[in-house]
Amino acid sequence: MGKKYRILEAADGVSALRMIEHHNPRLVLLDVMMPGPMNGLQLLSIIKGDSKLKHIIVGMVTARGQSADGAEARQRGADAYFIKPFSPRTICAWVDDQLQ
Q: pTM of the full predicted structure?
């Protein structure tokens, strides 16, 4: 990554939502399968359904590679869907592109 970004990490979906509401980031990366009561797709729906958060660019990362999984993420508002294993350079290039 050529640019410097501030990276925040959350342990689960609930703490991620709190951080997102507090920091109002321009972009978030969510794992579809997160520990706790809220998975990444549920958090994605909350973000895109909230008028104060829906501007946030959301990339999903996942081990779930079925086409239906990616379609569901896009239907919920994901801006990108990266299937593991993926190249970190691919993610970094996407982040750079989105934040220009």
A: 0.90
